[in-house]
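Hi, here's the filled form for the chain we discussed.

Project: internal
Contact: R.S.
Residues: 260
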Amino acid sequence: MRIRKALLITPDRCIACRSCQVACKEWNGLTAEPAENTGSFENPVALGPNSYNRIRFIEKAAQDKLEWHFLSERCVHCGDAACVKVCPSGALHYTAFDTVAVDKSKCVGCHYCISACPFELPRYDATGKIAKCHLCSDRITNGLEPACAKSCPTDAIRYGDRDALIAEARREGKTPYGEADLGGMGVVYALSRDPGLYGLPAKPTIHPAITLWRDILRPLGWLGFWGGLGFTFLHYVTFGPKKLHMPEKTIREEDQKGGE
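And the returned structure, exactly as it came back:
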């Protein structure tokens, strides 16, 4: 039985050093993105084709003082991923570790994954190909932990056996966000506050239309296609090709014209 791996992210431990961002860029060969001062220390201000993860800064006023909360934002590697469901080319697929990896050579740039993702996390690069966190699939397949977890100085990002990490979060008095949602997320957040504080949906779900398309309409479409093709072949084998029968009078007229 394969033991599922995951990241456990504990926002209370994060000091916003952003070493995870730097390590991610360094390992994946991602370049820096132009930025400007928007009145916050948050940088970059959003995920992008060269930013697979980022630290979100949440500023809250509480009792005449300012509170900062930090969240490592990236693809959460759903066990039942909407992006994989709608991907028509197989560019998004599961690995042996149940993470969602990317094969850019297969990406057709349809953007279906963006509209399907409950967190709106996938991004596209300048070539029109999808770009997102792949949980360092090239590292974990070789027995190494993801670069972000390796570089985190406070263990705000931990990598290991998913069940063991969730149990550890509970022992610390935290609520594992994403434990059972979306087939169980491969990036679980150990929260001590409401998910809404971090901009996380209380109950992330896949839109019913996506399930309808993937599980019902799409299989029916293929069934209709192959069924029609099979019926055509069966008709050809049984009755043969359709023959054209011209009226006798018409045939004689054509012969006369040919004789003239």
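Let me know if anything looks off before we file it.
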